[in-house]
Specification:
By secondary structure, this protein is an alpha/beta fold. The chain has a domain at 5-157: TIM Barrel (Alpha-Beta Barrel). Helices cover 43% and strands 15% of the residues. The protein has 11 helices and 8 strands. The chain has helices at residues 5-10, 29-38, 59-68, 84-96, 126-137, 165-178, 191-201, 218-227, 235-243, 247-262, 279-292, and strands at residues 15-20, 44-47, 73-78, 101-105, 154-157, 182-187, 207-213, 268-272. An 8-stranded parallel barrel has the order 1-2-3-4-5-6-7-8, surrounded by 5 helices. Helix 8 (218-227) packs antiparallel against helix 9, helix 9 runs antiparallel to helix 10 (247-262) and helix 10 crosses helix 11.
């Protein structure tokens, strides 16, 4: 029987996860195509939850489609769009459907999305959701009421290790104390900062997957430095992209190097491409070429 994402981590294997976005509509053909493309190369795939506050098909529905395609899903659940009743109801639904990997997120503000007049909920933050899931795994809802059948959710969360390694390690410890079991980090580019973060983080007893976001151009790298808190693309990488005749291919090469470095630092990587999902496979194959060279 094929090992699950959780079993692979617990057995000490280095895991690779990818990330797919739901369609803005009901046409799921591209989602199925990407799932089939990646299924033999990744250990699980995340489905985003109205990422950047843009309304799309639900993460839960898309995770069920991944299961139909033979891919283990990781459902993302944000606090922005649901109160605690809705969150727990969705988590119970995921459990019943056999979707047991959950990435807990607070969520982007609605003003950045395509429904800026929508009302944010934020009844909980991600830490409160982690604590509630731990209780659900013990057979109780967040108010202490007994459930008729407990959940068996593998509890994940996000950390931004390069924004401030000391502060993020403190945040990580709080989440682990509440029940966090695995982490998929925000995008990292400064491997020295990530290594400093990991020196302390590895003491927490939590599985950490380094987030690797494909750099498509020097322009994208500068945008990330300017606009995304906690992300710092080193000048040396920007220079590589500027000098490359094919910046996208250079970005794939950079990502492959990062994956190889992460094998010595943490338990896995989480690969993100934002609209170029087919390039996830190219990143994996480029890293394989490094290993065999």
């Amino acid at each position: 029987m094929r090992q699950t994402f959780r079993e692979k981590l617990e057995s000490g294997q280095f895991v690779v996860t990818g990330e797919l976005a739901p369609p803005k509509g009901t046409d799921v053909s591209k989602l199925r195509e990407h799932a089939r493309l990646l299924k033999e190369s990744v250990d699980a795939i995340n489905i985003t939850d109205n990422q950047r506050s843009i309304m799309k098909l639900s993460s839960l529905a898309c995770c069920l489609i991944l299961k139909e395609e033979g891919v283990e899903p990781i459902i993302q659940v944000t606090c922005r769009d649901r109160n605690r009743i809705g969150i727990q109801s969705d988590l119970l639904s995921a459990e019943v459907l056999g979707i047991r990997n959950v990435l807990t997120l607070t969520g982007d503000p609605v003003r950045v999305g395509d429904h800026p007049e929508a009302k944010s909920v934020f009844d909980w933050n991600s830490m409160q959701m982690i604590e509630a899931i731990r209780q659900m795994n013990q057979g109780l809802d967040s108010e202490g009421h007994a459930l008729k059948g407990k959940t068996e959710i593998f509890i994940g969360g996000a950390i931004n290790p390069c924004s401030d390694p000391v502060a993020q390690n403190k945040r990580l410890k709080k989440k682990v104390d509440l029940g966090l079991q695995f982490v998929q980090t925000q995008a990292i580019y400064d491997m020295n900062k990530f290594e400093n973060f990991m020196q302390e983080a590895k003491k927490q007893g939590v599985f950490i997957l380094a987030g690797i976001l494909l750099l498509k151009s020097a322009k994208m790298a500068r945008f990330l430095n300017r606009s995304v808190p906690g992300i710092s693309v080193p000048d040396a990488l920007i220079e590589e992209l500027e000098k490359a005749t094919d910046p996208l291919q250079k970005g794939i090469e950079i990502a492959a190097r990062q994956i190889a470095q992460c094998r010595q630092l943490c338990q896995g990587v989480h690969l993100m491409t934002v609209g170029a999902e087919e390039k996830i496979l190219d990143m994996i194959q480029a890293e394989s070429a490094i290993k065999s060279s």
